[in-house]
Design goal:
single chain; 71 residues; mainly alpha; two-stranded antiparallel sheet; 52% helix
């Protein structure tokens, strides 16, 4: 699943109407927005997890966990 597809799923009418509160939706969307991919020449890295000391590929473990729970 791409970053854009994941955001689209979270924003979909089906997903939003299946929840009783807006708070979980807003929190989940905020996390996905933080962990967006930074496109590099040959791959993507997570903008939130990557630091000067470490490069973390996208999707990172956070995005993978969200995708797994939404599946």
């Amino acid at each position: 699943m791409t970053y854009e597809e994941l955001l689209a799923d979270i924003a979909s009418k089906n997903y939003r109407e299946s929840r009783t509160l807006d708070t979980p939706y807003a929190a989940l969307n905020a996390v996905v927005e933080l962990h967006k991919p930074l496109d590099m020449i040959s791959s993507s890295m997570c903008s939130e997890c990557t630091s000067d000391e470490e490069t973390v590929s996208y999707p990172c473990e956070t995005i993978k966990a969200i995708e797994q729970e939404l599946a």
